[in-house]
Amino acid sequence: MSVTLDLDQLRTFIAIAETGSFTRAADIVFKTQSAVSMQMRRLEERIGKPIFMRDGRASRLTEDGERLLGYARRMIRLSDETIAAFDETELSGSIRLGTPDDYAERFLPGVLARFSRSNPRVEVSVICEQSLDLINLARAGELDLAIVTNCGEGAVEVIRREPLLWVTSAQHAPEDEEVLPLALYKAPCLWRAAAIDSLTETGRKFRILYQSSNSTAVSAAVSAGLAVTALAESALRPGMRVLGENDGFPRLPMCEIGIVRSWNRQSSPIIDALAEHIVSSLDNISVPSVAA
User: Which pTM value belongs to this model?
Assistant: First the structure.
């Protein structure tokens, strides 16, 4: 006999997974704690596997719980998109979204595909510039929303943190050169500044062999084995290799990715809806597997 999963139970399950607590999840889903516990017992019975384990006062997912979480999020998103597709009061209008070109390549396909399915009447215009320029455009009211690297400017809502890594080609070893060749983004760039500062502090000789405001150009120089660069973890591509402290490279700071809103139009249903899709997409993005 086939087993049907209950979407309400899955929403509660996601709330527990994200808060780590049955009590806090109960507040989010507007249920009593006993009702939440009953829902989770029934969900475990449906899938025939334990999905939680106790860790002090917190509730951690089991391995099966981690597997279920991915499916649950997809099912809830699909349910919400289905309802939105038949909603006569669905959003309509336009929004101006800004992003650096490397974030556009990594994040936008998933963000825009899901947002378009949920909000087919909204037109999204995309502008690609460096993060500091995007923050200034949002400040001037020329953008409604932007995905940026947090560089200490503007009111950036940080939604993802990931390591900034030294990266080179998996097939070459430019890091062995006496004067380290670098491929970096053009200034102003937080990743560029972090790479230069860390090498300067350690006394490592370097030269900036390639620089560009285009992520494809920087990645091409690295993949060809011509240089080393600094990239956020989610920017890694097949054929790249991560360099660490064992290779003589100092640890780099964390990269903070966030969203910034127009100062002239802080909130609207369209902006809020797109922001929610961005947060959800960046929360679930997978990190490519590369050589170390």
Answer: 0.64
